[in-house]
Specification:
Blueprint (H helix, E strand, L loop, with lengths): L1 E6 L6 E6 L5 E4 L2 H6 L2 E5 L4 E5 L4 E4 L7 E5 L5 E8 L2 E7 L8 H6 L2 E4 L17
């Protein structure tokens, strides 16, 4: 477990998160994740701390309106998603918004891909190269 720091592009939103990269990273093929090229690290909500910019955050929910996709209202960068899964509440921090995570550590972490497009959270989709 290590504490990393992240932000949006313009710096209006800043956070820190306690991340265990041994647990891996996630990608999803649902409609919004595909368009965002969503790549994230899932955490328990207590491991995520918003340090600045709550007023700059905007949230987008769709379909079942279960998960909140949070982005900076000024620069548009997707920063994190919050929601609940079968494993419980989570925050999924986008790896692109992490400022101090070495690329080598990120690439060495295991990767799980979800078939959100078919609401199948157990079996990965057959094709993942586009994600």
């Amino acid at each position: 477990m290590k504490t990393y720091h992240g932000s949006c592009h313009c710096g209006a939103v800043r956070y820190e998160a306690d991340i265990d990269l041994a647990r891996g990273t996630v990608k999803c093929n649902c409609s919004i994740c595909t368009k965002m090229r969503f790549w994230a690290v899932q955490l328990p909500p207590a491991s995520f701390r918003l340090l600045q910019g709550r007023e700059a955050l905007r949230e987008y929910r769709f379909h079942l309106r279960r998960d909140g996709h949070n982005f900076c209202g000024a620069c548009g960068i997707n920063i994190f998603t919050s929601g609940a899964s079968a494993a419980g509440p989570f925050v999924a921090v986008t790896v692109g918004s992490l400022d101090d995570m070495p690329v080598e550590e990120l690439l060495a972490a295991p990767l799980r891909v979800f078939d959100g497009r078919n609401d199948n959270w157990v079996t990965p989709p057959g094709e993942t190269r586009h994600l």
